[in-house]
Amino acid sequence: MRKLTEKHIILASHNKGKLKEIADLLNPFGIKVTSAGDLGLNEPDETENTYVGNARIKAHYAAKSSNKPALSDDSGFSVEILDGAPGVYSADWAETPNGRDFSMAMSKIWNKIQHSPIPRKAKFCCTLCIAWPDGQDEISEGSVAGEIVWPPRGTLGFGYDPMFTDDGMAQTFAEIEPREKHLISHRASAFNKFTKYCLGS
Ligand code: IMP
């Protein structure tokens, strides 16, 4: 795998929750992160139906536009009994004319599954793509399995965190401190692979 030697990269995302998590994860490596949003870059359309496809679109677009290596994260929440939905469409399920509403998106899921048997299995998936301006890229993937809880609990985290408990945990992802989530999340798992192969840690 190609090594990342640059100390300043672009995060190909406008999502502030992801920026905070990824900046925290890269900080120990002395890598500074600027978001595509802060550079005023557009968000390319995510036209693929896989995490890898969409992660590649975002990372390559940001790398070409900024002339720096760009890291993208395409992630989502998959509910087993819904055949993996919302999955790559996790952000879309929260869209409203006034922006994203994850309380609404969580209720949408709950309305579809509330009569299904317990445990209601779900997982978070994350694909990271680091792309260089010359067109090369590397992919790392991770996931974390657990269960849906209802009603949602907790105010930390973002997105679908309040309705998910990692297998064996009592608290939701929105009830644990970010540093604890960084140890066990789908993003952490993808990240560990990225740092091992691309940063040589
Ligand atoms: P995208 O990768 O920007 O297309 O959107 C991924 C969507 O998946 C986010 O907007 C969240 O709704 C959801 N998601 C991804 N990772 C997490 C997480 O760690 N916690 C909660 N929701 C997440």
In a nutshell, what does this entry contain?
It contains five helices and nine strands. It has 201 residues and is of the alpha+beta class. The longest helix has 16 residues.
Layout of SSEs?
Elements: E1 8-11, H1 16-26, E2 32-35, H2 51-66, E3 70-79, E4 86-87, E5 95-96, E6 99-100, H3 102-113, E7 121-131, E8 137-148, E9 164-166, H4 178-184, H5 186-198
Parallel strand pairs: 1-2, 1-3
Antiparallel strand pairs: 3-4, 3-7, 5-6, 7-8, 8-9
This protein binds inosinic acid.
What class do helices, strands and sheet pairing give?
A: alpha+beta
The portion of residues assigned to helices is: 25-40%
Number of E-state strands: 9
Largest sheet: 7 strands, mixed
- Could you give the order of the helices and strands? EHEHEEEEHEEEHH
Strand content: 15-25%
Bound molecules: inosinic acid
Q: Give me the Rg, rounded.
A: 17 Å
For the terminal residues, how far apart are their CA atoms?
Answer: 13 Å
- Structural shape: globular
Tally the helices: what do you get? 5
Give the integer mean of the pLDDT values. Answer: 95
Can you describe what's shown?
- The chain is an alpha+beta fold.
- Helix content is 29%, strand content 25%.
- It contains five helices and nine strands.
- The strands form two sheets. Strands 1, 2, 3, 4, 7, 8 and 9 form a seven-stranded mixed β-sheet that branches. Strands 5-6 form a two-stranded antiparallel ribbon.
- A hairpin with a 5-residue loop joins strand 7 and strand 8.
- Helix 4 packs across helix 5.
- The chain is globular, with a radius of gyration of 17 Å.
- The mean pLDDT is 95.
